[in-house]
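User: I'm new to structure prediction. If I give you an amino acid sequence, what do you actually give back? Let's try with this one:
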Amino acid sequence: MDTAQRLRLYYEACIPMGLLVLGMFHYGFPPFDDTTLTLVPGLLMCIIITYYLYNRLSSNTDDTHVLLGTQTSMYRRRADPGRMWGGMLVPLVMFALNIGDASDEKHSVGLGACGAWVLSVAMAWTFTVRLSGLSLGCSWALCVAGILALALAGPWERGNTGVHVCLVAMSAIAQHMGTQFVVRKLPRSFTLGEAAAIAQGICLALLDLAAQLFTRKQGLVDPQHMCVLVLEAAGVGTALIVCVLYMAPQHSQGVSVKDTVWMCVAAGAGAGFTTSIIAFVLGANPMRWIVLAVLGSQTGRIVLIYWFMLMACATAIYAWCAQTPTSSSKLMLHIKRKSYHILAVLLFAPAYIATPLVLHIGFTIALCVFVCAESVRVLCLNGWGTQMTHFMRRFTDARDVGLVVTAHFYLLVGCAVPVWLDNTRGCVEAALAGVLALGVADTCASLVGLRFGSIKWPATVKTVEGTGAFIASLVVAVECVRWAKGFGYDTAFGYDEMLGYGLVGSFVVCVAMGVLEALTDQNDNLVIPLTMYAAVKMLIHSDTISWVSVVVVAAMLAMSLIPHSTLIQLHSVL
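Assistant: Good question. You get back a string of structure tokens that encode the predicted 3D arrangement of the chain. For your 574 residues, that looks like this:
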């Protein structure tokens, strides 16, 4: 790896690491009253950050080690493995989730925001240690020490030490097995960092669902709890559908009665299992609640009509595009791909401003449909696989060379996860982080950079013109949704109870996301929305003085002014 490439990775790493370090030292470990019980997770994350920062500047390349049980050929090609994101992304997001939610922790169900932060640190710690190149005995000792420290000194209720040790150990083991499973069963679809982040998110959702099953609170049917439970139970039900479809006899041509029967059985089993889980936990009929939540208000009905009309128009346009000859123009391919991003903005932004609850449920249903449809495509059930593959390949690029076409999944997940994390709380910029970053900013950056870009960033194909378009469009989009939500602020620096800080925080977030989009080799549809969610929570929706934003601006300016020759000398010393 040449020096320019290493410096690019160094600057990329500074953004999430800087956010997490500033957040931990400004808000606490994380922001709760009793910081002594949350000191251990923060210290472990500081060690992880120090290791990755040294790794970025040292002679140890990111591809020196691969996950045990996998091979280099199983990962997505032409991209750095992104181990730093596997150890940083989920803890960063979980830490941001705690900001402003400390008052709700005593009334939380399942893991709670603080419990999710501790388990994310445990998974990041074991992931980093196992890939550090240490001897087997040393790595196991460090993993066990970290698990015990988090279980014994973490922010838990006293008296359940055995349960805490089992929970932390299960999370660490599950994320390792989950990452292995994702990489081996879906080869060349993900980098190591992407696979680890996905596995960690799934593990947290499953452990939260298990915690709710063991601590049933029947009769507690508030919207926030119900939305989370529907999402997690629907995920398990969808996994059951995929398993049933996988056992079906495969037919590559024509419509098969057996395939149709298998698909109906799978759908029935998944829906029944999901409904049973929710009914067991809450003692309520989930289908009745979902229907009332979506159709019980006039706003919900209007949003549904708007969605159907928009999807009908989009389907007609894409059907017409499918009949036209495929253009080899790179610009035309980008226009086709980014049209989905524009569609996402039109679908999701108005719906969230009108009714966040309906959008939360809609994202859950959409993800289940996407997973089932991709399973049918991969397994070639009912002869649909070839037709679906032919249609989707019109919108893919070099990153979609694996078994699974990930472009539409990343777009959906990037838009949906911030909404799921916000969970109807109404933090508009954080919830719409994915929609604004991918639907508006990424589209402008791609088209402007491809059409007018001439100055390229070092060791990357991204252009400075594209980054400028990203930042400018994102600033405008963020400010537009702030005003569309019906709020305003008196001064650019003054604090508003609903909005946090004004233009300073917004500008810092947008600049950081623009630089990150230009430098990262990971799929930007995944890392940009989640990082922006964390940045918005830390730098915009803050109830403290604005020196955090000032420090971030100063740090970014100072980092950009460091001569490359100085960093090259530091690299040679290390």
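You can read the tokens as a compact description of the fold. Here is one thing that stands out. The two ends are 15 Å apart (CA to CA).
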